[in-house]
Design goal:
Blueprint: H1 13-24, E1 27-28, H2 40-51, H3 64-78, E2 88-91, H4 93-105, E3 111-116, H5 120-128, E4 132-137, H6 147-153, E5 158-164, H7 176-189, E6 192-196, E7 222-227, E8 240-243, H8 246-256, H9 267-277, H10 281-302, E9 306-308, E10 315-319, H11 328-339, E11 341-342, E12 344-345, E13 358-362, H12 367-379
Parallel strand pairs: 1-11, 3-4, 3-5, 5-6, 6-7
Antiparallel strand pairs: 2-8, 7-8, 9-10, 10-13, 12-13
Length: about 375
């Protein structure tokens, strides 16, 4: 009974592995959600909205206060001037932003260049939109973008690039040179770039996130997606946004109105408060996450895993090929019984075989949780 547009799209690995963590009472170092909520003042603002009668439909594009706060955020951080009435739309998290962007812009047969490994919703929504994906692989262990491979992926039917930086699951933050390569390809071939920037504030060790829209000639052809979930530790609120030229943002709204129409009415003014009145929280969170990253990566190395220290995001990647397992999924499915720990295999985020033995671990957990997970791994026999 499944519609053909869903043929070959498996259930998301995140639900499967999180359910496995609950069932086996394992330490969940898989799905990327923090153990601690964001600023109390933001929660209080949501409660105020709930108790103050802001519980009915919000405007389809989002409440004006949030759209204005998003515009101020983009100007303050990146120098991007936006009209909050025509160049900003609020979405139900960045996941809906991706879905609405692809459904609103991609025609059947359009080719979409996407970085591999990719967040699994990308491929699902490209397929549902009738598009054709062309992956460009960020290869282990460095996970850098090869400009020649990017150029080679473009054909006469290519219309879009779907970009993610800071990149999930590898933790790569694209350099100025890599971003310039993307911009050059987009300008040369008249491509629209859809950028997922949900980890924009979570970068480490002097790395900087630079939105592609800030590069010369790119604002007019870039649709920027982000959310409050990661930067403010409210992943369950699902409040995101799309910004950019009015015609691209309008395409998102045209599709979004038939998906959720609107959502989270009392949460939207709370997120506006976060952006305007808690501007330092994301940088403090990034400093805290850097320490947790180091804790996790050091622990993974101590138990014998080959770990790549990420430049951004919530995640670190290990290569488990030396342990004798057939692939990452086999390792991750056995791990709860062997060690009482859950991680995410990244093989399903590739078209190629490049991610066969790669496993993603989340460090957005409390230090005690990370330490317990490492202790369990240390006591276990991880070899096949």
């Amino acid at each position: 009974m499944l519609a053909q547009r869903l043929d070959g799209i498996p259930p998301t690995i995140f639900s499967e592995m999180s359910a496995l963590a609950v069932r086996t009472q394992s330490v969940n170092l898989g799905q990327g959600f923090p153990d601690v909520d964001g600023p109390p003042a933001v929660i209080a603002r949501a409660v105020q909205a709930l108790e103050g009668g802001q519980n009915q439909y919000a405007p389809g594009p989002g409440v004006p206060a949030l759209r204005q706060a998003i515009a101020r955020h983009q100007l303050r951080h990146y120098g991007l001037e936006l009209d909050p009435d025509s160049q900003v739309v609020v979405t139900t998290g960045c996941t809906e932003g991706v879905a609405a962007a692809l459904l609103g812009l991609v025609n059947p047969g359009d080719e979409v260049v996407v970085l591999e490994p990719y967040y699994d919703s990308y491929t699902a929504m490209i397929q549902m939109a009738g598009g054709v994906r062309h992956p460009v692989t960020l290869r282990a262990p460095s996970f850098r973008l090869d400009a020649d491979e990017l150029r080679a992926a473009v054909t006469p039917r290519t219309r879009f690039v779907l970009l993610n930086s800071p990149h999930n699951p590898t933790g790569t933050v694209l350099t100025a040179e890599e971003l310039r390569a993307v911009a050059d390809v987009a300008l040369e071939h008249d491509l629209v770039v859809i950028t997922d920037e949900v980890y924009e504030h979570l970068v480490y060790d002097g790395h900087a996130h630079v939105p592609l829209a800030t590069l010369p000639g790119m604002f007019e052809r870039t649709l920027t997606l982000s959310s409050a979930g990661k930067s403010y530790s409210f992943t369950g609120w699902k409040v995101g946004w799309a910004t950019g030229p009015a015609e691209l943002v309008g395409a998102v709204l045209a599709a979004k109105q038939w998906l959720t129409f609107t959502s989270g009415s009392p949460l939207q003014p709370a997120v506006a408060h976060a952006l305007d009145d808690e501007p330092d929280f994301p940088s403090a969170l990034a400093a805290d996450l850097r320490a947790r990253r180091d804790l996790l990566c050091a622990g993974l190395a101590e138990v014998g895993l080959d770990v790549r220290v990420p430049e951004g995001t919530y995640f670190a990647t290990t290569d488990i090929s030396g342990l004798g397992w057939e692939d990452g999924p086999a390792f991750c499915l056995a791990l709860p019984e062997r060690a009482g720990v859950v991680a995410i295999p990244t093989r399903g985020f590739y078209d190629s075989d490049a991610g066969r033995h790669l496993v993603r671990w989340a460090f957005c957990k409390e230090p005690a949780v990370i330490e317990e997970g490492i202790a369990r791994l240390a006591r276990a026999d991880l070899a096949r």
